[in-house]
Design brief:
- The N and C termini lie far apart (113 Å).
- Among the domains are: 2-48, no CATH class; 62-116.
- The chain has 6 helices and no strands.
- Helix 1 crosses helix 3 (28-47).
- The protein is an all-alpha fold.
- The chain has helices at residues 2-16, 20-25, 28-47, 56-100, 105-116, 163-177.
Length: 180
C-alpha cells in the first residue's frame, strides 16, 4: 500500500540522520519507527474520519461554528435591544403629547389605559382608619396614607436602636467626675 511505502521512506530518511544517544543503546530503528508511526497516526486522526470516531478537524470546525453562531445571535440581540429603545423613544414622545393634550384627569386615565394597558397589579391589604366609610368614594378623592412594608423573608430583622450604648457612656462620664 502507498501509505506503508511512504512511511518506510520516512523511517529510512530518519535513519540516515545520526542519532548518537539512540545508536549507543541499540534502539535506534525501533524508536524512530515508533515515533514516525505515532506522528502519522496523530496526523491521520486529525484529518480522516474513522468508523469509531470523528476526526479532530471536524470537531474543531463544529465548535468554531457554534461559537460564531452564538456571537452572531448575541450581537443581533444587542442590536435589537438598541433599536427597540430608539423606536420606543418616538412612541414615548407621542404619548407625552397625548397626555399634555388631556383637559381633565378622567381623560388622562383613558389615555393611560390605552397606552399602558393593565400593568402588573400587586394587592396590599391594610387596616385603614378613614374619615368616612363610603364605598362609593374614589381612591383619588381620599387623602394619601403611608404604610411601612416589611419583607417576607426569614432573614429580615428590624434595626435596633443604639440607646443602650449611649446610657453606658453617660454612666462612665459620671463616674470620672467622682463618686455618686
Amino acid at each position: 500500500m502507498i501509505e506503508e511505502q511512504l512511511l518506510e521512506k520516512v523511517v529510512q530518511s530518519e535513519l540516515d540522520i545520526p542519532h548518537a544517544v539512540l545508536e549507543q543503546d541499540g534502539l535506534l530503528e525501533p524508536n524512530i519507527r515508533k515515533n514516525v508511526q505515532g506522528k502519522w497516526i496523530s496526523l491521520k486522526n486529525w484529518f480522516v474520519n474513522t468508523p469509531e470516531y470523528e476526526c479532530e478537524s471536524r470537531k474543531v470546525l463544529k465548535i468554531t461554528n457554534d461559537i460564531i453562531r452564538s456571537i452572531i445571535q448575541n450581537a443581533a440581540l444587542i442590536v435589537q435591544i438598541q433599536n427597540w429603545g430608539i423606536s420606543r423613544k418616538d412612541d414615548y414622545h407621542k404619548f407625552l403629547k397625548l397626555f399634555l393634550g388631556c383637559s381633565n384627569m378622567q381623560e388622562a386615565h383613558k389615555v393611560a389605559a390605552h397606552v399602558f394597558g393593565i400593568q402588573q397589579v400587586e394587592h396590599y391589604s391594610a387596616i385603614e382608619q378613614t374619615d368616612s366609610d363610603s364605598v362609593n368614594q374614589s381612591a383619588y378623592e381620599k387623602e394619601p396614607m403611608m404604610y411601612l412594608l416589611k419583607p417576607r423573608v426569614q432573614t429580615y430583622r428590624e434595626k435596633k436602636s443604639p440607646s443602650g450604648i449611649q446610657r453606658q457612656i453617660g454612666r462612665k462620664a459620671d463616674t470620672k467626675n467622682g463618686p455618686i
